[in-house]
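Quick one: structure tokens for this chain, please?
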Amino acid sequence: MIELNINRSMFTPNQSKIFFGAINMILVHHLNDSRSQRILWLLEELGLEYDVKCYKRDPDTHLAPQELVRIHPLGKSPVIEDGNNIIHESGAIIDYLIRKYAGDKLHPANTTLAYEQYVQWLHYAEGSAMLPLLLKIYVDPLAEGGTPLHPRINSELDNHLGFIEASLEGKTFLVDEKFSAADIQMSFVGEVAASFELLQLRPNLQAWIKRLQTRPTYQLAIMKGGTYRLAK
């Protein structure tokens, strides 16, 4: 008796419906100009069908609308609904979608050293790299009030962006010379840094971001999610 190992990732969405039957559509709660853009992009890379519910930032405060609190108590985006599963945090969502739908796509084999590097980049994006960028976002509007903090923030920015720049030396992508979900997760770090004009002396980061943003799936995600000011 021959045993077949078949999962949804082997099929297009329409083929999957025929073979497995109808499935619940993934719903992405998407906030404009936010981390949730990465989730739309990943779904495009995976070829999954999904719905998008768009939320707009307050034009004055730039904060997410209170409406998002009804989806998750933190009132943050991204959040996805997949059947009965409601998942928040971009890194957790990416990990979930990769484990459930990617098959062997967009990540190294989990028995390799490359996989450990891949996991490190997934966690590094929000665990370390985004912190000095967030501090800059919050402190810059304070003008002179934030002056004492600038040296430490700038030092950390140089530290992290220098690390990423060196990691990309001679490389096309972050892990094993193959595009992966680690590139998607880390893209927001590079895009926010670029918005502050922090990549001018970092050619590897510049080239990597340009390489990511020219992918057809990246452009499709913007079409579905709406204006994304970090895409340049």
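Strands lie at 26-31, 50-55, 79-82, 85-88.
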